[in-house]
């Protein structure tokens, strides 16, 4: 245990409170005492202990009220009830209300120390689990939706690269969220309070691109009636994101390289240089090495920019993220359009999950918008999906895939037994989802229903296990 653990003793008997202090005198914990319920509440409004020893009989209020207040406020403190007025039924009822343990007076020194050590260790492990969940299994992150392994990797790279000034070279197919990624890096960086300026090098004519980046002075070219700030000046102190950088003209690439190396640039038509402090991010949907090999992208610029590579995964490789993203779009657009949609039918989910999504998240967004604008209802059906999604799979294929998603018969204790189609007699081949579910259910049963222990044995995140378990229970309902 660490000396940073704090324990609050709520006990109206001063001799008993002093006895507990003696029991715990050599333990590396910080103790505080409260003789009344109100004194305890005053303390808890100022500080949050890791653990609370709570007497049920207090002079001004019952201990149950304090327990209820603690749970209502959402305090993470573990509560151990200590009372001489306890029964088994009382203990069970208090545990249901949120107490972590129940001790009956008189309490021996060894019993008290062991119980406190166990609860503090549990709190420590729970904190580690929550830290792991926040670090390794985030379901949303800086504008992204998705908990798949490829996206967890993206989140970790962003976390690591954001504090630096190093250039991040983002690659990925069109529609995978490269600009969202660039904004996430900026928002996680020390420059978050400064400007984020994005330029799409493929959408601006080549003869105007230099002016867009560096700006121009009045009379620099026909139509330049005023001085104009470029993206470089606008992004000073912040981040400049150059999207589709492989589309940039070779001559301008040379000027860009010098700008990145020195931080100095010259407006079109100007005679003096200006200096800025910029963090560069860039992206392309092409293979940059192929562009270098074919002479369309400068090799020296590539190596200058390619400091931290970050590859955005295509939607088809993101598993159940497809359904999470689609549902988020559906709920948002339904609210916007005044429609009733809240979910997709199981058959529609199968189609969404198995469609290759060549246009990635952008295409998915347009598909959902199409459905919401043209239709209404509670659940989106296959017929409401636009072509080619409503033609992707035959009815027989959809039934076959849906059948493999149904629960296997189980005796693990967290769902009623249901039947599903048997594998073809004599065949050893089974859907991976069935094998995974069977392994998880057997492990949870082996651990007597303890999901945390099962997660440790299976070497996966507890939150992943809870999510899968919840999804199966929903299917069985």
UniProtKB/TrEMBL annotation:
Has keyword Kinase?
no
Keyword Transcription regulation among record annotations:
yes
Q: Which residues carry this modification: 4-aspartylphosphate?
A: 55
Q: Which controlled-vocabulary keywords does the entry list?
A: ATP-binding, DNA-binding, Nucleotide-binding, Phosphoprotein, Transcription, Transcription regulation, Two-component regulatory system
Domain Response regulatory span(s) in chain numbering: 6-120
Q: Where is the Sigma-54 factor interaction domain?
A: 144-373
Q: A single GO BP annotation from the record?
A: phosphorelay signal transduction system
A GO MF term: ATP binding
Disordered as annotated region, ranges: 404-427
Among CDD domains, the record links this protein to: AAA, REC_NtrC1-like
Against SUPFAM superfamilies, the record matches this protein to:
CheY-like, Homeodomain-like, P-loop containing nucleoside triphosphate hydrolases
The name on file for this protein is: Luminescence regulatory protein LuxO
Q: Which gene is transcribed and translated to give this protein?
A: luxO_2
